[in-house]
Amino acid sequence: DEIEKGGYPHFMLKEIFEQPRAVADCLRGRLNVENHSVQLGGLTDVIDRLAAADRLIIAGCGTSWHAGLVGEYLFEHLARLPVEVEYASEFRYREPLISEDDVMLVISQSGETADTLAALRTAKEHGALALGVCNVVGSTIARDTDAGVYTHAGPEIGVASTKAFTTQVSVLVMMAILLGQKRGTIDKEYAARLIRELNDIPGKIEKILDQSDSVKRMAELFTYAPNFLYLGRTYNFPVALEGALKLKEISYIHAEGYPAAEMKHGPIALIDAMMPVVVIAATDHTNDKMISNIEEVKARKGRIIAITGAENKEVIDLAEFSCPIPETEDCLSPLLTSIPLQLLSYYIAVNRGCDVDQPRNLAKSVTVE
Ligand code: AGP
């Protein structure tokens, strides 16, 4: 165990720090910065059918479902393809309306999650093309899908998914660019810029990891908070959900993730001086709205932790603590904003003496209903 942890006290921390390499491995051989193109060998035989699809249904559980939500924004934005994101566990028990013109994309790190596998089989029974994004090569889901893309993140041992999420999102970005180019919905210059920016993501993750000590210090101040609220908009709404899930899983602190604008429809009632609010403000065109959300929280004495661009002075000045992230394109920001949230939950869980790699009641892959 100690050797496998490579000098880190926990697998989770090792896997958080492996992300520059995991994302680079995921992108390797698939991005061509000079030609502004993406090659995903696993999709070659199905790309025409995918490009002609009426609708993309994305299904998964937990963190993989959160990656799927980022996928919804990506496919709509870059490929103008209608998308529905489903909890695999609900989808299988509904009477879903699926046709041969639909494509089902299942996302699973392990490739063995029972509900995700059942959702996949339901879609196949209705004649939909079945695609997968999996990490474990040769897993049941990888074998049962018609085609797919591996994340190549390497083994993930910690129960809390970290590098699985960032590599899943990396694959979804590449798929959405490829599909946007095929469908003619993505501007040439913009595609070229995204490919260049995506190629730079591993280095930017590295820069965030270099600041882990400041996240550690921040974690000390919030270790005994009984509740946390995470707020994000657009691409960073799923990151808010993911940040809250990470904290719940390993530190047993109650946490909720919300789209920031929904705060006034309920959760605002929870805010007082005891409530840390993590604001993920890294999406340019919603920045003004996020600033007013922050002001609403502050007016109720909530404590703001901001994950935001290093240049976003207005947000940084309003926040009690901030974790600056390097600038990137909005749609790539989840690849960066998720990192400090992983570190925050890790350090809080360690401070609380929790078993980070094997949290109570949880299994790495849920192979039963
Ligand atoms: C993530 O931190 C969780 N442990 C869990 O939600 C997980 O993402 C979910 O069970 C799905 O697993 P999969 O990706 O292997 O299908």
**Secondary structure category:** alpha/beta
Strand content: 15-25%
Number of strands: 12
Describe the biggest sheet?
Answer: 5 strands, parallel
Question: Based on CA inertia axes, which overall geometry fits?
Answer: globular
Strand order of the largest sheet: 4-3-5-6-7
Organism: Fodinibius sediminis
Protein name: Glutamine--fructose-6-phosphate aminotransferase [isomerizing]
Keywords: Aminotransferase, Cytoplasm, Glutamine amidotransferase, Repeat, Transferase
GO molecular function, one term: carbohydrate derivative binding
What topology emerges from the helices and strands here?
Elements: H1 11-17, H2 19-27, E1 31-32, E2 37-38, H3 47-51, E3 55-60, H4 62-79, E4 83-87, H5 88-91, E5 102-108, H6 114-125, E6 129-134, H7 140-144, E7 147-150, H8 163-183, H9 188-209, H10 212-222, E8 227-232, H11 237-251, E9 254-259, E10 276-281, H12 287-299, E11 303-309, H13 313-318, E12 321-325, H14 334-351
Parallel strand pairs: 3-4, 3-5, 5-6, 6-7, 8-9, 8-10, 10-11, 11-12
Antiparallel strand pairs: 1-2
Helix pairs in contact: 2-8, 2-9, 4-8, 4-11, 8-9, 8-14, 9-14, 10-14, 11-14
The chain binds 2-deoxy-2-amino glucitol-6-phosphate.
2-deoxy-2-amino glucitol-6-phosphate is lined by residues 61-64, 108-110, 113, 116, 159-161, 249, 365-366.
Domain SIS: 46-185, 218-359
Protein name: Glutamine--fructose-6-phosphate aminotransferase [isomerizing]
Subcellular location: Cytoplasm
